[in-house]
Amino acid sequence: MSSLALPAPRPRAWLTDVPVLAVAVVWGASYLAAKGVTTPSTVLAVLVLRFGIVLPVLAGTGLRALRALNAAQWRGAGLLGLILSGIFLLETYGVVHTSATNAGLIISLTMIFTPLAESALTRTRPSRTFLAAAGLSVLGVVLLTQGGGFTTPSAGDLLMLLAALARTVHVLAMARMRGVRGAEALPLTTVQLGTAVVVFALLCAAPGTGAAPWDAAAAFRPADWAGLLFLSVCCTLFAFFVQMWAVRRTSPSRVSLLLGTEPLWAAAVGITLGGEKLGVPGVVGAVLVLAGTAWGRRSAR
Fold this sequence. Notes:
The chain is mostly helical. It has one domain (13-300). It contains 14 helices and no strands. One of its GO terms (cellular component) is plasma membrane. Pfam families: EamA (PF00892). Belongs to the EamA transporter family.
């Protein structure tokens, strides 16, 4: 995508770029995978299984760092975990009720919402260029959700919009929460995911909230297990460790730009593998969302 122009790479920089780009690809594919393995009655069960599988690996890898966390860092990470659980609930319920293409593109609005929210908190006026990019993205979402003609956006579209807002809250909380400053990424992520799994398990135990994790697992076919393992191993475990590895070998801005291609891959996977159709308004909307978020990211920097 031409608007995501990257700086000239250093020698062998592509050796770092390829794994990071692979993370963007698997994240883009995660919406279709989640849609394939999840039903409205198994959302909580799938979330427990997805993160319950990788949590022991993360905890075992970073056991020493977990022990080094102080009480304030544990509390801060736990609070961030509560926000994170809300994000995954909104995203997973959202993708069940909309297309994978819409889900991946709408969630990319986080890149617009976050600088806007930060400007509001710091009482600084965003640039006109950024406001224009934000307006372009919003117009794109409106067209995207009307791919087959102008109708009321689906419940899934609205849930994904709320998920984008929740992601914004999570990003700002991580940046501003004093309790987690100085904590390493691995234990911080482990506590957050552990908190989220506890939330999902408690909700699963409540009556009328859907299938239990063991019941959902017993009903899984081989394709369902493949989708779940893809979400757990590739979209969670692989993605986290690649990010930790990459930021030590290249700039955070470069990692961010590469990961910012996620909505492009979500659309590509949804259309080519999922057989989803956007219609003319949807195609125009998808292009505007991609252009607006890329333009907004550059102007925000």
